[in-house]
Model the fold of this input.
Amino acid sequence: MKALQFSVSVPQFAALKVLGSINRRLYYDGPLATIRLVDVPEPTLPSSDWVKLRTLTCGVCGTDVNIIFLRESLTATPFISFPCTLGHELSGEIIEVGSNVDGIEVGDVVTVAPPLSCSIRGIEPECRSCRMGRPANCENFAQGNLSPGMYVGLCRDIGGGFAPYLVAHKTQIFKLPAQVSHREGAMIEPLAVSLQAVLDNRPTKDDQVLVIGAGVIGNLIVQSIRALEIDCSVTVAEPSLFHAELASKVRANHLITDGEILRHAIDITGAKAYKPTIGKEILMGGFSKTFDTVANAKTLDASLRTLRTGGILSVVGIGKEVMTDLTPLWLKLQTIKGVLCYGYSDVYNGRKHLFEIAIDLVKQKKVHLESMITHTFSIEDYKQMIAVNLNKSKHRAVKTAISFV
Done:
């Protein structure tokens, strides 16, 4: 079968860091490309605890793009093994079920929670993260009976959704009800990321919230706040007028499109600005909760300077080698929270996985995902798909995906 596979060598990495700065296309087209369409064997069940899926839709994540263009931090490389078939935002149809799998049948349409945690790796006892209900933050991503890999799509032993077939462990499978389409099913993973970010830094109606970035995750953070019926003020900072407009449609109260976050924060929150002898202003007062989905040096600096005393910053995205002035953190008693993936929550009557909560919110039409997939491609057209991702505003793209149906 054909699969989109990622791999890179040290000489290739060095060459692309020089030549790729001149021509970005070299990262995905030509002899130095990090991603290629290759022939791989169709997967078989690793054990009786696994199922096999026919892929229906697989979304392109910002992480996938960063991996292809070697923009991910090298700190994460111990938890990746390649060559690996990318793709972790997916839906599929069950075509084979292991003998030790209950409640899942051939023909079920499902989505997959991609983290490859202790239970999937055959590790007992489970690590502290898995025991506390955060298997996506497992401490054993490089241990157990699988090669290193944080999740499906980053492990050479387990193929991802950029292929017509893949296998998944029974604990990763979540059925989609009839009211949730397979296209929406491919969006459950990013919705779960956004929901977890909101639940980990949950606003109240009196909070002033700032969301930096209105791409898929930023948009879904706004939708998650509203789906949880939190009637707080939400400000979205996004330079793309197209994406900012979409944030307004999902009930963001204020938009900042000119990059002047500090200036607008004064007007929106009533904060006071103070000018140091040299350098940027710092605000006293400001937003109480900030979700930074970009998290580069510029946005993190703006986040801290506009966050009020005791405010909480959720770092949802992450830039490479970020450095910023931490004086506001110290001066204003702020908290910075890391956000990666999802786990279990007691937000609704009983402990549930975030995928279950996300599916239920989509089923109830409290979150709208279908229209967010604006562009679909065949696997053979992956180069065009990557080109669209490099200039989403020009193409009016939100989520791009590979479709196998």
Summary: The mean pLDDT is 95.
